[in-house]
Amino acid sequence: MSKAYDELKAAIVGHSPLIYVQTPEEERVIRELKNIAGDLSWPVRKWSSVRGMEGVEDAKEPVKALLSVIDQSLPGISIFSDLSAFFKDPLVIRALREVYSDGRRHNERAVIIIGADFDIPESLKKELQVVEVAPPDENEIAALIDAEAAAHKDLSVQADTVHEITLALKGLTENEISFVLNRAFSLENPSKDQLLDEIFAEKKSVVKKTGFLEFSPPRWDIKSLGGLDNLKNWLIKRRNTFSREALAAGVPIPKGLLMMGISGCGKSLAVKTISSLWNIPMFRLDMNLVFSGMYGSPEEAFHRAMKTIEAVAPAVLWIDEIENALGMDDSGQRISSHIFSSFLTWMQEKPPLVFIAATANKIQAIPAEVLRKGRFDEVFFCDLPAPAERDEIMRIHLLRNGANPDEFDFKMLRIMTDGWNGAEIEQAVISARTEAFYDNRKFNERDLTAVISRIVPLSDTMEQQIKAIRSWAFSRATPASKYGKSAAKSM
């Protein structure tokens, strides 16, 4: 039997007169309730605001339907599908309290309310037993895959592929899983990557409905990230530990990663490579929208965001500029303490297959509670790239823009870009290519050096701020570069 079946049956046989089932999967829950009723030899009846109560005349109104359970001493399971929409009606609240009181004397009766939202009136919280039904587990997903694959007789799916897509489908509802599998299996001989792309697209659709979560597609390869070898090695070594197998084997699952440092040094790009490297979807939390009030109070919106991420796990949650996301000002003072405390609590209690990837620029604004061991597995400091790293970054962007790196003097370019960050190198190459395109020719070293000579790097315009950032991070973070603190010696 499924976990949902066990949780629902435990509530029913425990003689709870009123049970609120929080789930968007009405059909799945009703099916499980019918199975439970069959095992208990209980009758089942359903009520909806459109069709009324099955087997009861003149019971479309919610109050009449609830009172019919009492007046007609209806045994078994009575399922109310739309009742949560009437929770603001005091007559409905009164009827529910009477159903609760009468139901305590009838052990073979249970009134089930199904609702997608946790919006229970304060006056009913003591009477209602809440059962939160999780999305289908691995066994249920595997059964759905087998059923859908059987319907596509020409399709052959390898066992390792089934295992991987089962994990990827975690967090979706039964209907969403059936839809995405039918769509994916309709492709001609779909590869594992095609199947995963369809699943990620469905998860993108799920989180898009929240408004403040944004799907980040897995399009950035770790080879496109120049320098930061310590950080890249850390991610590569943990690629196989972030999995259901590692969790079952008792291997510690990485919790999260915090990257702080100088602007333009690859923090955001490094986060984007995690999705491709670990082959799991990534979602960026837009805290500006959370704080905007468009989706209710910031605390309520933040809670919904965390529940959505938990539902679509395994996933990476990307929080950009975490110092702002936590409601901190430049000095580290809390502007929104509720968000801050809620986030710290969630970090401790979140499901293991949600990985937090956070970045920060104003590192002095990050409170000690966030930096302490146990919140994040590692805190990396991204400094200005060392000379060899600038060569690697330059080579990546030259190749990306159609140039032959062998035609460029890297020794001279290394000197000219002393103190530059990766974003500045990228923009110099793009600008050189754009200017050459205007002249209808391929760009060359002369174009690049001309652009470099005009750019004033951030290390010059914000020299004091960068020195302060380095001083702060010296003993607080692990260097993301294999050159460590020697990366800054060229300045």
CATH class of the largest domain: Alpha Beta
CATH topology type of the largest domain: Rossmann fold
Helix content: 40-55%
Query: Ranges with pLDDT <50 over ≥5 residues?
Result: 486-491
Instruction: Give the name of the CATH superfamily of the largest domain.
Output: P-loop containing nucleotide triphosphate hydrolases
Describe the structure in your own words:
This protein has 4 domains: 3-132, Rossmann fold (3-Layer(aba) Sandwich); 138-209, no CATH class; 222-382, 3-Layer(aba) Sandwich (Rossmann fold), CATH 3.40.50; 384-491, Helicase, Ruva Protein, domain 3, CATH 1.10.8. It has helices at residues 3-13, 26-40, 62-71, 90-103, 138-151, 159-168, 174-185, 192-208, 229-237, 244-248, 267-278, 287-292, 298-311, 322-325, 337-349, 368-371, 387-400, 410-416, 422-438, 445-454, 458-461, 463-473; strands at residues 18-22, 44-48, 52-53, 76-80, 109-115, 129-132, 213-216, 256-261, 282-285, 315-319, 354-360, 378-382, 478-479. Strand 4, helix 4 (90-103) and strand 5 (109-115) form a beta-alpha-beta unit. It is elongated, with a radius of gyration of 28 Å. With 491 residues, it is α/β, with parallel strands linked by helices. The longest helix is centred in the middle third of the chain and has 17 residues, at 192-208. The chain is built from 22 helices and 13 strands. A 7-stranded mixed sheet has the order 7-9-10-11-8-12-13, with helices on both faces. The chain has a 6-stranded mixed sheet with strand order 3-2-4-5-1-6, sandwiched between helices. It starts with a helix and ends in a 12-residue tail after the last strand.
